[in-house]
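Consider the following assembly input.
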Amino acid sequence: MATVPRPGAHVCGIDAAMDVIGGKWKVLILWALGERPHCRFGELRRLVPGITEKVLAAHLRELEADGIVHREAHQEVPPRVEYALTEAGRHLNAALAPLGVWGRDHVLNR
Amino acid sequence: MATVPRPGAHVCGIDAAMDVIGGKWKVLILWALGERPHCRFGELRRLVPGITEKVLAAHLRELEADGIVHREAHQEVPPRVEYALTEAGRHLNAALAPLGVWGRDHVLNR
DNA sequence: CTGGATCCAAAAAGATACTG
DNA sequence: CAGTATCTTTTTGGATCCAG
């Protein structure tokens, strides 16, 4: 195998995971969906203050493509779309917990 | 309190940690330093294939500022500088482990 | 209400050359 | 050896307007 096998390849599980949660707001979206499952788009926008519609939509599409969130569009007017964590998304949230503890202990409360 | 208290503030430990490990190569640097403590600059560059000197130096300075790595310059010719994880850095690596497992299980081997 | 489309600014990273 | 200095390129996110 080459030192850099192919562009975009991951050398270990950690940087593979980092690609999935690398967006500026993604962990906040995951956290929000963990706290409140089956969130609507506008609800998420309120739960993640400061994010724009465009970026929220983009991140949700990426998370969906990565199998982290499930998107369900109900055929109604006005439109209603609900987002929820998949099984993989819940596992990811659990794997993120120790990192949250570390951040609180070593970065926050200074 | 405002919805976004002040620019750059963190709302939870996870995104605080994400700021620390957010660089493209940082987790690989941490992993290398975990495997091989007391690494020299050129050694690290070889252990993280593809990274440029500029980016490696910049990331090391940021990690040092965040208290993750310790830099020790020996006054010799030719120059010798050694990098090592701090206690916080070792704890961070440990907190990253579950994320690595998740990445292997859900992103790699497809 | 849920976004898509467009344009723009800022940040991050890469290439290359050079120095104590 | 261990970086710094520049310059360019790429990526990311923000602002705004518009549509089904």
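Helices of chain A lie at 13-20, 26-35, 41-47, 53-65, 87-106. Ask yourself how this observation constrains the way the partners meet.
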